[in-house]
Structure formats: structure tokens, C-alpha cells
Amino acid sequence: MWLALHRRRRMLAALALGMVVFETLIVVIANTIPPTQLFGGQGGTPPGAFKAFSGSTGDVSIASYPGLLGAGLVHPFWIAMQLTVIGSLAAAAVAADVESGTIELLMVRPVSRARLLAERTAALVIASVLLNAAATGTMAAGVLLSPRLHREVPITGVFSAGLLGCGFALCLTGFALAVSALGRRRGQVVGATIALGSVGFAVNFVALAWSRAAQLRFVSPFHYYTPGDALADGTVPWVSFGVLAGAGLAGLTAAFVLLARRDLAP
Q: Where are its TM segments located (predicted)?
């Protein structure tokens, strides 16, 4: 576990720093320019499709302080950093060693397949929590230091959004590790992780923008990852968190089963 984190310490440090800088920018923008002016124009209402960018199921507009801060937690930059951590460490969990031919050397040591996957999964979870903590801590500091933001966004909402972000990361982690446990190439895992993130966001966007496709939103993890709603309400949407965590645990279970039954020969 520690070796997996040590090998990627520079990448993790750079991503955490990038997350802090990005969320600081979001807080500064929210504190400088009222969201209604930024997205609402001359008293207008943002298009319905903007719901996807506020991290909300529709109750929170992006032209509000919770919606604008929520946009910082579903922005493509935020998503890209999450996918980088998950794709990188998930690929290294199994598929990278199969591709390079080092998996057989690892299995010669008295280390079971389950322990190998469990410790590398723990490293991935630690890295994801670190990234979400960097975003949550920065946003919490910005809300506490700004009376304007603090009036509109409860501090409990910031931490609720952070916990929901961990649930979202766990959802993607389970899927990525299942692909890694089954795959033979690093690129397969990275590609599948990126595909789930990008396609999931696109499906949720289309479902919110087009009423005829509304039912598709239930298959996207972004329908359940609603930081904008958490920021506005100040509470964790436990049903959505349960769906994300449940999907992640199902993926992790599948990863252990697949790894136990597969042939590790190159």
C-alpha cells in the first residue's frame, strides 16, 4: 500500500495542489461576482441544461452561491483530476503488472491475490480521500472567511459535499478495479475509467436538458453526485450516497472475485 503511494507521491502532491488552487479560484469568483450576474444576465434564468453544471438534480440553480460552488465540484477540471488518480492507481493494481509480466514475480512471494488487491485498493482510497479533502478544506476555508458566502452556504453543506465526493470516487474506484482485475493492459483500465466519467457526465447532461431522455439520468453516477444540493441543504443526501457507495462496493467485490479466478499468465 505504502509503495503504491510512494511511487506516485509527486503526482498526488501536484494534483492536491492543483485542486487547492482551482477551488480557491472558484471561491474568489463566487465572492467577487454575484452568481446571478455571472450566469443570469440581466435578471434572466440560466438554461435548464445548466443544472448538470451546478451538481444538482434541479432544485439548485447555478446562478446561486451553492450552485456556483457546486459547479467547482463537478467542473471538468475536478473530474479530470479524480479520473487521473483513480485510473492511474487502478491500472497499477493488477493490469499493469500483467502487462509488464511482473505479476508472476509478485505471486511467488507469500502474498495472496486478495491481500495484493486489498492493499492497492487501500492506496487508491487514501489518494481519493486526499484529493477530496483538499477540495473540501479549501472550500470550507473560503466559506468561513467570507461572510457573504457563509450566509448562503452552511459549513455543514461543504463537508456534506465532500463526503458525497468520496462516495462518487468510490463508485468509480470499484468499476476501475474490476476492469483492472480482468484486464491485461494498463490502457484498458485508464480508457474505461475515462469513458465512465465522460459518458456518465454526458448522459446526465442530456437527461437534464432533454425531457424525453430524462429516465437515462438514473444510469449515470452524476445523477447521484449532487454537491450543489448538499451545499444548499447542509445535509448529506444519504440515498444518493448509498447508491454511489453501493455501486463502488459491488465493483470492489467483483474485482476480488475476478482476480481470484483469472489466469495471471501473460
A: 12-33, 77-100, 121-145, 157-182, 189-210, 238-260
Is the pTM higher than 0.70? The answer reads: yes
Cell readout for 35 is 452568481
Under a CB-based contact definition with an 8 Å cutoff, are residues 58 and 229 in contact? Answer: no
Q: Are 254 and 185 in contact (CB under 8 A)?
A: no
For residues 54 and 100, is the Cβ–Cβ distance under 8 A? no
Give per-residue pLDDT as tens, 36-73.
Answer: 776 655 445 555 566 678 888 877 888 889 989 999 99
Could you tell me if 23 and 142 are in contact, meaning their C-beta atoms sit under 8 angstroms apart? yes
Q: Please report, for residues 74, 75, 132, 200, 242, the alpha-carbon distance to residue 168 in angstroms, rounded to integers and kept in the order given.
A: 11, 14, 10, 12, 10
Domain boundaries, the chain: 2-261
Q: Is residue 142 a contact partner of residue 27, using CB atoms and an 8 Å limit?
A: yes
What are the tens digits of pLDDT across the range 199-250? Answer: 999 998 888 888 888 899 899 999 999 999 999 999 999 999 999 999 999 9
| Owner of C-alpha cell 431522455 | 213
- Residue pair 180/99 in contact (Cβ under 8 Å)? The answer is no
The helix (run of H) or strand (run of E) holding residue 97 is helix 95-100
> ∠ at Cα 194 (105, 218), nearest 5°?
120
**Distance of CA 232 to CAs 53, 182, 196, 250, Å?**
15, 40, 27, 30
> Which ranges in 146-237 belong to alpha helices (H)?
147-152, 155-182, 186-209, 221-224, 227-233
Q: How far apart, in whole angstroms, are the C-alpha atoms of residue 32 and residue 176?
A: 39
